[in-house]
Specification:
The complex is a heterotrimer of chains A (302), B (260) and C (295). Chain B has helices at 54-60, 91-97, 112-122, 129-139, 143-146, 159-171, 189-202, 215-221, 239-244, 249-255, and strands at 3-4, 16-25, 28-38, 43-47, 71-79, 82-83, 98-101, 177-181, 207-211, 224-229, 232-238. With 260 residues, chain B is α/β, with parallel strands linked by helices. In chain C, helix 3 (75-106) packs parallel to helix 6 (149-173) and helix 6 (149-173) crosses helix 8. The relative contact order of chain C is 0.14. Classes of the chains: A mainly alpha (302), B alpha/beta (260), C mainly alpha (295). Chains in contact: A-B, A-C, B-C.
Amino acid sequence: MPHVSLTAKGSRNFKEGAIGAVLFACAAASTLVTIGVVLVLVRETFAFFSEVSVIDFLTDTRWEPMFQEQHFGVLPLLVGSVMVAVGAGIVALPIGLLTAIFLSEYAGPRLRKTLKPLLEILAGIPTVVYGYFALTFVTPLLRVFFPETEIFNAAAASLVVGIMIIPTVSSLSEDALRAVPDSLREGAYGLGATKLEVSTRVVVPAALSGVIASFILAISRAIGETMAVTIAAGNLPNITVNPLESIQTMTAYIVQASLGDTPQGTTAYRTLFAVAMTLFLITLAMNVLSQWVLARFREEYQ
Amino acid sequence: MSTTYDIDLAGREPALEAIDLSVYYGDTHAVQDVSLTVPSNKVVALIGPSGCGKSTLLRCFNRMNDLIGSARVEGRVDFHGQNLYDDAIDPVEVRRRVGMVFQKPNPFPKSIYDNVAFGPRVNGLKDDLDATVEQSLRSAALWDEVSDRLTDSAYALSGGQQQRLCIARTLAVKPEIVLMDEPASALDPIATQKIEELIYELKKEYTIVIVTHNMQQAARISDYTAFLYMGQLIEYGPTETIFTNPREERTEAYVTGRFG
Amino acid sequence: MSEANRPLGTGESTFDRRRRLMGRAFAWLCGLATSVGVAALAVLLVDLLIDGLPRLNYAFLTSFASRFPERAGVKAALAGSVWILGLTTLIAFPLSVAAAIYLEEYAPRGWVTKAIQTNIANLAGVPSIVYGILGLALFVRALGLGRSVISGALTLALLIMPVIIMAAQEAIRAVPSTIREAAYGLGATRWQVVSYQVLPMALPGILTGTILALSRAVGESAPLIMVGAVGFLAFTPKGLSDQFTVLPLQIYNWVSRPQDEFRELAAAGILVLLALLLSMNAVAIVMRNRAQAQR
């Protein structure tokens, strides 16, 4: 700060500069992490694609890297991930949004203060616990109603992942709803609107960018979710639309492959990185999309 | 201690009648035993220093205070012989019949058309919506400025245009009474003048109660003026009398600018 | 005004009745949706208590994993989790706070800063298993640290750093700028302002955010599977290069076995894990409340 002390001492300048440099290095280190992730993934994925064609990877409908006759079609894993994400979305998006509307528009301050931490606990429970819950509670319950349900099935996994991401939707959406100024609510009430109409026709549309961003983020989380689906959804790469069957997601495959004794340097080993790269690109795209929606369609209230 | 003049109702039923009306916010007695008759098709101005309870009183007339959890209302407001605060009365219907325009323009983040159509839509008045929208915009003296861009966002309008849009939005529900809470306080002088001219036109069809802190404005546009001070109605009568020959000392002090 | 003298209805028309009914139905629907989350939490906890409580005793905490469910315990996993927790804190906390200080107090406005900021926000959204891949390639293989405690801690540190950085930034931003101006006005250097004024005031917020991030690390299992932590271990780590397991992995190992006895062990293990998380969260909440009381 030379302008503070008129004749700055050299030693003090040096010390201040050094501190600034160290702090900068720490902040920049986060960029190195990203570069590291990308480098590792790109290098191994590149090696993978020199052995397996991209076309096969994207169009082959069988994922059998460990079999004698190898197949490297990522579609079954992709379908598995999408199925869990869609199922979780069906649970979490409506429930999360309605919860957000309840907390923001209906609940009094005391009720809100009690409910919010409870929902935050849902978000803080380790995913392995959700896996346990799906396998030992949800699946037996499903089998009461649908006896044909397999022990490992997509439905139970979707359901618990859905519960897990409710707080993501509800808390981000609630922030967006509460950012809508009260003057808009008053304007609508003044025209003889009911609370339902004020909430659904004025407040939610006004907060739509934030609500949609929370949806995208939650789905992205469901796709990246690992342990609950590994435990409950099974390890059977399977293109199906029946949620009661066993499937395998991209994340579950990565776990399975790294638990096994796949020798390093083989094509089978490199599948790990190709799948991780696919997963990384999908979730990154969704996160960027959610930020873009938020920035692009943000309402400037007056 | 308070003075009320005879209000000339011209043989018609009053638009609104507040009787011994009190409002409490928690322990604060914000409006104290106010009785006041609003004649039909007139402009009534509520004036007084900040915090005197004039906005709170205005919000009693369409039960907007219901939205504030801590507010409690005692007394009655009669409207066509019914007490607005009767248990059987639905506040939603009250607000449909008694519209409100707010201090700052608060258009919804929707198109100009959808802003005006909002009230008719939620109230099930969907017949001939286009005509209602046009008529409301014409009544608010905004039609000529926006008729070729009804689908534009309301936020693209200037502040004065936005406020007239909010007035059009209120008129579209076809209320009998329009409450205005300092509708020009956020606007420049030219936009203010337009709003004042509009109010003069509107009183042919509507009864208007307006809160203002601008005494010249009250004198220019209103037929009757009520002066409130610390939650009490001090004096209520024809505007000319209140401004030129008030009976209460506090009224005189306020209208001549000695405090407030 | 055709309806000028129409008396004020009391909402008895069919339209009004339907509208009121829909309003009430919607309010109930919202309340119901909110209770789904709360009810799920309750069912989850009750289910765990029924399954796990009978298995929970002192011997469970002090025994190693075993092929025989009646003798198995979480000693190795608990020790591993504590090791991981300590090491991850040591690595992630100073780095993250330094990064946050730079971004809030030192960084010039420009594309470099903006790029770093965007990058941190995006890193927070990367699935944890991808960090596991990085840990595997970088720490286990490239740096030759092997399947060790330090590899696991480094991986988890990378995972939670974005979270701590963003929480710390928020805490630092909450320090009023008048405090900084006052200190600068007295001739303090930038570092003196930061270390004597800003950091002490922001510390409770930073610590709260850090504890919440660490409780995420304690519950993580996927990235640790990648760096080679195992689910079955009969010793506790003695040094940085030792093999290790953690509570979530031990639980995963037990859940994956078909026998009911091991499922009960898993439930008991989950109760231990949740107790650990709950106490960490309690500390965070106490700190947050104390910090708010000071303001």
